């Protein structure tokens, strides 16, 4: 998909992500943690568990997954509770909860700095923290937000000012995993083959909303946004693997 040639703030193109940073193991007392940054948007994620679930949450067949979303300041409101529900339902589709019945896994997401695309930022932070905690997962996930501006169409990874000006928002989550070659399989000149990134065809989450009366989006807008996010989620997944590889070298 071709982007508009005019540039955005900090000379970004319409189809360009902001710079990504990831720090695993940022919190010592958590079983797993991650500080995920998309330039001005930063989320600190912590994971505790699996631990014995309290009686009212205990499930004999599977673990219980709790998600807490804390804003940068003040108490959680309707938006934060909506984020909690959306993230929990999505994570339940990739975390293998049946391996730890009668336990509870808690994911706490604390906004450190808010500058747009916060739901996607929280998704990426939560997934990385779960990996850091060693929680069994069937797949990992990558999330990207797209905004529709009346003046220029779809833009990738909007900041807060762009979200404010947008007529619609789209947040998509794609599953992904890496396919590792079988033992003994080598490429040219006997070198070991690199694992292949596989992006899932289905969406784990596809949230869309229009802002203001008389404003909305068409089916074509939705599918164009989904195509753009699929392209960008591949970039996020590649970054996540690179970050994971570097951290494992550090722990070794």
List the helices and strands and how they pair.
Layout lengths: L19 E5 L7 E7 L2 E12 L11 E7 L7 H14 L11 E11 L4 H15 L7 E10 L3 E4 L3 H6 L2 E12 L16 E4 L5 E6 L8 H33 L1
Parallel strand pairs: 4-5
Antiparallel strand pairs: 1-2, 2-3, 3-5, 6-7, 6-8, 8-9, 8-10
How would you summarize this macromolecular structure in one to three sentences?
By secondary structure, the protein is an alpha+beta fold. It has helices spanning 78-91, 118-132, 160-165, 219-251; strands at residues 20-24, 32-38, 41-52, 64-70, 103-113, 140-149, 153-156, 168-179, 196-199, 205-210.
What does the radius of gyration come to? 19 Å
Helix content: 25-40%
Would you tell me the structural class of the helices and strands? alpha+beta
Lateral strand order in the biggest sheet: 1-2-3-5-4
Largest sheet: 5 strands, mixed
How would you explain this protein's 3D organization?
- By secondary structure, the chain is of the alpha+beta class.
- It contains 4 helices and 10 strands; from the N terminus they run E-E-E-E-H-E-H-E-E-H-E-E-E-H.
- It has helices spanning 78-91, 118-132, 160-165, 219-251; strands at residues 20-24, 32-38, 41-52, 64-70, 103-113, 140-149, 153-156, 168-179, 196-199, 205-210.
- The strands form 2 sheets. The protein has a 5-stranded mixed β-sheet with strand order 1-2-3-5-4.
- Strand 4 (64-70), helix 1 (78-91) and strand 5 (103-113) form a beta-alpha-beta unit.
- The termini are far apart.
- Mean pLDDT is 87; it is low at 1-5.
């Amino acid at each position: 998909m071709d982007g508009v040639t005019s540039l955005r703030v900090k000379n970004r193109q319409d189809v360009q992500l902001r710079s990504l940073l990831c720090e695993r193991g940022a919190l010592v007392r958590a079983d797993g943690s991650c500080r995920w940054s998309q330039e001005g948007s930063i989320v600190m994620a912590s994971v505790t568990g699996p631990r014995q679930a309290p009686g009212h949450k205990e499930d004999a067949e599977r673990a219980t997954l709790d998600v807490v979303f804390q804003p940068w300041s003040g108490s959680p409101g309707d938006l934060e509770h909506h984020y909690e529900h959306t993230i929990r339902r999505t994570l339940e589709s990739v975390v293998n909860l049946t391996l730890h019945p009668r336990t509870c896994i808690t994911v706490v997401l604390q906004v450190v700095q808010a500058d747009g695309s916060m739901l996607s930022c929280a998704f990426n932070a939560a997934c990385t923290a779960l990996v850091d905690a060693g929680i069994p997962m069937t797949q990992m996930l990558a999330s990207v937000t797209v905004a529709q501006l009346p003046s220029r169409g779809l833009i990738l990874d909007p900041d807060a000012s762009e979200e404010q000006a947008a007529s619609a928002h789209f947040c998509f989550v794609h599953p992904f995993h890496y396919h590792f070659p079988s033992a003994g399989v080598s490429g040219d000149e006997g070198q070991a083959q690199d694992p292949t990134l596989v992006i899932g065809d289905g969406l784990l989450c596809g949230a869309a909303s229009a802002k203001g009366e008389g404003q909305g989006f068409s089916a074509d807008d939705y599918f164009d946004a989904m195509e753009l996010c699929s392209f960008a989620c591949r970039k996020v997944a590649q970054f996540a693997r690179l970050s994971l590889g570097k951290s494992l070298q550090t722990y070794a």
